[in-house]
Amino acid sequence: MQKNSAQGDVEMLKNVSTRFFQKINDTVFEEAIIIAPVMIEVYDKSGKVATINRPPFPFDEKNYIWENHKGLKFKFVEIPDPSRKPKEPPITVPQLFVLLGALLMSGFLIFYLNRVFLKPLSEITDGLEKVKDGDLGVKFSTNSENRHIQETFETLNEMLRSMDEKEILRNNFLQSLVHDLRAPIVAQNRAIDILEDELSQHELFSGMKNNNEDYLKLINLILEAQESQAPDVSINKIDIKFKDLINSVIEVLKPLADGKNITLVVETVPWNLKIWADYLSINRILINLVSNAIENIGSDKTVKIGAFDRGECVEIVVLDNGTGIKQENLDKIFNKYKSFTLTSHKSVSGLGLFIVKNLVEKQGGRVFAESSNVGETYTKFTITLPLRNRDD
Q1: Domains of the chain by range and CATH?
Q2: Higher-confidence residue: 36 or 232?
């Protein structure tokens, strides 16, 4: 049989049978030609021809090696038929265990991801939605198995707690503010009633003036508190003779001190000490501290104002021998939203001292408070301001 005439049989052999022949040394013959009922002529890539016996179909797959007349051995192998869907091998017991293990692992992984990541993220989303609606009482669970998520929840809880506290402080401040603003208005209405009766007009006008002054003072404090927080507050530092500065402050406050028989004492070391500060700011700071001392201590007391060169800074001190502040209230005195009660049972707002703290810090300084309400009572405010730099 000629080679050309055998092409159809070769294609038939490839398409119909999934069997092929391979030499023992793994050389695969690319073409096979049926040359006899039991003979096949095969060609490899180099074109060499080998002739092997063709066993009759069906083949015994256990006897998969044949030897031709030249002693060459060929191995019977299976070649997948493209036209047929290959038969899936049955699943073995080990494969079944592997499959079940993979399914269990996948299920556990899904459960773990949902519990450790997806559920906390959903809780965060729901909680923040409540916060957006104004509910600051949201509490996130801190029992997460993931350390980072637990730390995130703790941070969120701390942030919300701080926001809630500030909201409470703001509400209390507004209530106090409304109460303080309401009182002068009520007094004015009462004054109008008295005017209608034309009685005690001198006392009436005096009371009205005092009420208006209190009213304006409160409003001015609020405005100053807001202005002191502004990032664009102008600070123009100059050399200021402390003696001249404090004399101008005392000139303003002496009538108030004289009204309560309070002695104002000034001490400056050295006597010609200069401070490097914004004049308007430091003037306002001293007026606030000294006037607070005068207003909040009893009659026949003393307020001392001093300035000292400490080498690395200038220290300004305002000291009074009033009834003092309770230790638990010392951390409240610079908070504009809080009010506190002195030992003398007088309620004091933190607005004025809040302004002092802001203005001091904007000049690179610091302010501290000390007080004692037992034994030798006193209240002391200490301000430290940096010295003038050589480059200034």
Answers
A1: 4-78 (no CATH), 89-229 (no CATH), 237-386 (3.30.565.10)
A2: 232
